[in-house]
Amino acid sequence: MSKIYLDFAATTPCDPRVVDVMKDYWNRKFGNPSSIHSYGREARAALDESREIISSAINAHPSEIYFVSGGTEADNCALKGLAAEMMKHGKNHIITSAIEHPAILETCSYLEKHGFKVTYLPVDGNGCTDPENIRREITGKTGLISIMHVNNEIGVINPLEEISRITKAQDIIFHTDAVQSFGKIPVDVNQLGVDSLSISAHKIYGPKGIGAVYLRRGASIEKLIHGGGQERGRRAGTESVPLAAGFAEAVKLIAEHKTQSSNLISSLRDKCEILLGERFPQIIINSKRDNAVPHILNFSFDSSKIEIDGEAILYNLDLAGIAVTSGSACGSGTLKPSPVLLAMGKDESTARASIRISFGRITENEEIKEFIERLSEIVSRIGKKRM
Ligand SMILES: Cc1ncc(COP(=O)(O)O)c(C=O)c1O
User: Is residue 206 in contact with ligand 1, taking CB distance under 6 Å?
Assistant: First the structure.
């Protein structure tokens, strides 16, 4: 039985061209970019070029990009560093949304223990944050707003441009977690109006272990990693040139795949939604097509119509060779219902009976059909119809 991977929002395979580019930097061009000799200069040139490629992909300046270990570190550094800075100006209020990734929510909960007040905004039935709710919660103490660009569980796209109009008018720093949007939909820091943004390489066919923070020039941030002067003194530690070069190559390849793969993925998504609807009348689609990225499709089994558990579906799908997830990858393994779906107003049983499938460049039509067949067999075996 062939295995089928439908979990590209959790991670993507490294593109072979990315692996090729990285090869040289592990051994032949192994210099430390801080060394002043020729080995170091060679590594520095590669690092600079990578920064240049990544910054231009989001319409930023290279000096606004800081390499970190991934999306989680990017969110941590940005939020903790910006919060520490705003505290110096007598501000201690942060606004975020209830459906952020744990990298943001857990950082906020840490900050709450260190003198900050955090408002967790509710979302509407589609998972979207209403900019008017943000406006209502702003006080004289608000210094930072963090709203994700695209949600990792349901794929909803937030109205960042509208939110940034509010933050700019009130001189509030605006951070966004763009880990799920970068490489999938346009991310232009100037158009979005954000001051700070997180991205991660392994979501875009790049290597694991590297990501970046974009920080608008002029924005002050407290450094969190102390040591040498790397990354312009903001994130000490010898930079990983192989990973940076791989990240940059993955970014270059986005352009090559853009039109072809986004059309293909949109049509796969639509086909999948149609097939799900035809086969399972008990299904509720949680990712609304008109305001979500095409690569994420989240659905629940309506608990008023069928008794079935998402974890059991997941487990059985895995036995059947299909990799999907319920909720975010970081939250799987727990039996808790998805907080994102609860925040969208789903009842606990329906939230628990939810599945996220996510498509990638290499997903094929046949795999979708096969997924529906195997899911159908599992649902008829373990699901209990309600009267
Ligand atoms: C929205 C979002 N933010 C942050 C992260 C964390 O990124 P990383 O795995 O690179 O630490 C993820 C990973 O799933 C994510 O989806």
Answer: no
